[in-house]
Amino acid sequence: MSQTPDPSTSAAAPRRLYGRAKGHPLSARQQALVEGLGEQLTWPDEGALDPAALLPGFAAHVLEIGFGAAEHLIGQAQRNPGTGYLGVEPFLNGVAKALAGIEDHALKNVRVKRADARTEIERMPDGAFDRIYLLFPDPWPKSRHAKRRFVQADTARALARLLKPGGTLRLATDVRAYADHALPILLETPGLNWLADGPDSWRDNPADHIITRYQSKHLGDIDPVFMDFEKL
Ligand SMILES: C[S@@+](CC[C@H](N)C(=O)[O-])C[C@H]1O[C@@H](n2cnc3c(N)ncnc32)[C@H](O)[C@@H]1O
Question: Is 19 in the pocket of ligand 1 (CB under 6 A)?
Fold first, then answer.
């Protein structure tokens, strides 16, 4: 399984990763897919990483951070075969589900990496993406755990850097503490402009959204909110 090192225990990992790295045992098929994860479905562990070189010939490139069980990643990739999708997720079972989805739908436009997205985004060039999704990131609702939340001033600056001018970042959450934490950070991030024109624009599922099993469980304390930011 050299392609899927456990990112929570990797000696090279510069940051501590919270949350689950593994869940229930993989099915035989998932195990085979993970073990066979070759360069054609992922990317190297080190070095600069250009999505346009990794998935050449696509009109646009999209990053999904923390894709969970991959319903949204695979669904979007099916809908948009002319767009290249990169997904980063440290949870082994999620990576296995993404690989099964890629195989089931014979997708040619998806690459996935079992990794901490904070590390992967540092490897990518400015303006690499037309769109970035950060959907229902682990909420860490207690204020003493706020530092564990994915959105921090440094990650927000990195996400802004990765977007092309006119590109968009979508954050979704159903946890008030996360929304209250992330919105001011993103509003203060140079180069990001919140595309909100009234409550409907953050309370409704966006027209292009795909609801995941996680979202449908409604584990948070508020109805889901969606915040789209444009790179100026
Ligand atoms: C609450 S789940 C939501 C999953 C999915 N986005 C959805 O909406 O169904 C949050 C996901 O973020 C992943 N995650 C946590 N920290 C991460 C990080 N540093 N980089 C990438 N993914 C991360 C978790 O493993 C988990 O799968």
Answer: yes
